[in-house]
Specification:
Structural class: alpha+beta
EC number: 7.1.1.9
Membrane topology: Multi-pass membrane protein
Organism: Sedimenticola selenatireducens
Radius of gyration: 30 Å
Function: Subunits I and II form the functional core of the enzyme complex. Electrons originating in cytochrome c are transferred via heme a and Cu(A) to the binuclear center formed by heme a3 and Cu(B).
Catalytic activity: 4 Fe(II)-[cytochrome c] + O2 + 8 H(+)(in) = 4 Fe(III)-[cytochrome c] + 2 H2O + 4 H(+)(out)
Strand order of the largest sheet: 3-2-1-5-8
CATH topology of the largest domain: Immunoglobulin-like
Helix content: 40-55%
Distance between the termini: 92 Å
Length: 374
């Protein structure tokens, strides 16, 4: 009866194991994402070589283990060899096995060293397109140095992003295919790290330093990454989205961005007196893009690091103090200087903050007021 029960149990376990194996077949294709650059492909190839070697060694080791468990088990009456350590293999296995392992390591390392040099050594004898990547708490800034374009990239809130929450941004990093691109990495505050797996590299952005990497994207597509350095409370809200397009489409995008830049500059430089409603509309959009990450859409902030603006003595105090805080920031705190915004943008944000939530100052700040405050 006991033997029969054991046999039935074994069959049930075998059946469950086969069923579990079949259910995992759908996930068999999970691996690194398909590379989008030649260097990334080389890294992928090293990964696959490592996995093949590891799988082969796993099979060899398990074969020995299974063989020993079956043929040397106690139920067969096998007696353990008490003098194995004095045999030829017993003496030399301590040298042979580590030597084989070292040989495997060196096989992988030699290829890896060559690829690493390609990743870190930026081509010097060719014309490259330069993109400066600046990490902020918690968003990315991309400067297309050859085109005079600046793009700010922030995560999209869950209600708008849906399934791509923390994987989608408002402005993607648009790059051309078949073009060597040099990335210049730095940070405005703490350590960040630019990481898009399909492009082959991960590079730290260090405050006060500029480091460089490069890539040449060989196909069109959308590639997602994220900040790979723990940079603070909202580290998870720093996704990266790269959209690669053909050189022709990229030039069209550049022309559009340059036209928007010219129109924005002209609008900000005009002497027009803006109505309160116009400033509130612009200010709401700008606040939710640039300020809400820290101070929240509700204006309640995240104390103590990010104080509330709703009911704030600065927001409800003199306009001059409010403008000074926005333009120059506050040293020693997370409040950075926003003087890089144009006069109209700052005027709109300040007007919105002073006339929303429970703040009802009634003030209307004009771009000329911001110009004087600078």
């Amino acid at each position: 009866m006991c033997r029969r029960f054991t046999t039935v149990s074994s069959l049930l376990l075998l059946t469950a194991g086969l069923a579990g194996f079949q259910s995992t077949q759908a996930e068999y294709g999970i691996n690194f994402p398909p590379p989008a650059a030649d260097v990334a492909q080389e890294i992928y190839d090293i990964h696959m070589l490592t996995m093949r070697i590891a799988t082969f060694l796993l099979l060899v080791v398990f074969s020995f283990v299974i063989y020993s468990l079956y043929f040397h088990r106690k139920s067969r009456g096998y007696q353990a060899d008490q003098n194995f350590h004095n045999t030829w293999f017993g003496n030399w296995s301590w040298v042979i096995v580590p030597a084989l392992v070292l040989g495997v390591d060196l096989t992988i390392a030699s290829n890896a060293d060559t690829v690493l040099k390609k990743v870190w050594d930026v081509p010097k004898d060719e014309k490259l397109m330069d993109v400066k990547v600046t990490g902020h708490q918690w968003w990315w800034e991309f400067d297309y140095l050859d085109h005079g374009i600046k793009v700010e990239s922030r995560y999209i809130p869950e209600e708008k992003a849906g399934d791509l929450y923390l994987r989608e941004v408002d402005n993607r990093l648009v790059l051309p295919t078949d073009t060597k691109i040099r990335f210049l990495h730095t940070s405005a505050d703490v350590l960040h790290a630019f990481w898009v797996p399909e492009l082959a590299f991960k590079k730290d952005a260090i405050p006060g330093y500029v480091t460089e990497t490069w890539s040449e994207i060989n196909r069109e597509g959308v590639f997602r990454g994220q900040c790979a350095e723990l940079c603070g409370t909202w580290h998870s809200r720093m996704p990266l989205v790269v959209e690669s397009v053909s050189p022709e489409k990229f030039q069209e995008w550049v022309n559009e961005q340059q036209a928007i830049k010219v129109a924005t500059a002209a609008e900000a430089a005009s002497t027009k007196t803006w109505s309160k409603n116009e400033l509130m509309t612009k200010g709401k959009a700008l606040y939710e893009t640039k300020c809400a990450a820290c101070h929240q859409v509700t204006g309640l902030g995240l104390p103590p690091a990010f104080p509330p603006l709703n009911g704030s003595h600065i927001v409800n105090g003199p306009v001059e103090g409010h403008l000074n805080m926005v333009i120059n920031g506050k040293p020693g705190t997370a409040m950075q200087a926003w003087g890089s915004l144009n006069d109209l943008e700052i005027a709109a944000i300040v007007t919105y903050e002073r006339n929303t939530w429970d703040n009802k100052t009634g003030d209307t700040v004009q771009p000329t007021d911001v110009a004087l405050a600078r």
